[in-house]
Amino acid sequence: MIDAGVLRAEWTKFSSIRATLVLSVATFTVAGLFGWLFGNAAANEYATATPQERLDFQPLDQGMRGMFIVQLLIAALGALVASSEYGSGTMRASVAAVGRRGRLVAAKAIMTVLTALPVSVAAIWLMFTAGQITLATHGAPSVMPGAPEALRILLLGPLVFTLLALFGLTLGLLLRGTAAAVNISTAFLLIPILASSAPGILRDILSTYWPNTAAFQAVSGTSELPPVLAFGVLIAFVAVMLVGAFVQFKNRDT
């Protein structure tokens, strides 16, 4: 059981780090900027497109392309929940104050969710709004928030981002350093870019089963897997990472 005092202590530590506020604001700002940039680029392409290209135009996909970049910031935000304490040298004191390491890890996971979820909601909704308004003002097709495909992204997208923040947290605990955690999370999340040039089975893994790719495809409705299974790939991956991070944290010196 986690008492309110432990969570308040985690919030105090987390909110006192300037980098967390900067990164949260940057995530929100970058999301809106990418929504506008990709919306503007897509509108320009639509203006010169052939009739067939206009029929194939997907305004939602065009306006939300920035999600693949914003995910990196969300994962970094999660990493800071743990790595910042290693950087400041307060982790040992936190363990002594809480007593049970499992309780401390759970408190950090809850703090990650409470921080990343609202940031993710704000970022995705701003990206959607900026992208679709930009498309509409330039005379290109756009999608309303109430459309089924839009609701899927607006409601499930923040959950994907929050899970990626938990992934960042596990790396912060495992690697005990902000730079290392952020670098590894960035590399891991961008690996699917190589899918088109990868051979055979590796291409299938990267384009269908890689955790963040599978979840994003489930959210966008383009997955070859059943949506629940595709989303479950990311959930299972993060759960395994959390267990691994807890076991290592419990069995080593802080």
Automatic annotation (TrEMBL):
Keywords: Membrane, Transmembrane, Transmembrane helix. It comes from the Bacteria. The keyword Membrane applies. The chain crosses the membrane at residues 21-43, 63-82, 109-133, 153-175, 182-202, 228-249. This is ABC-2 family transporter protein. The lineage of its organism: Bacteria, Bacillati, Actinomycetota, Actinomycetes, Streptosporangiales.
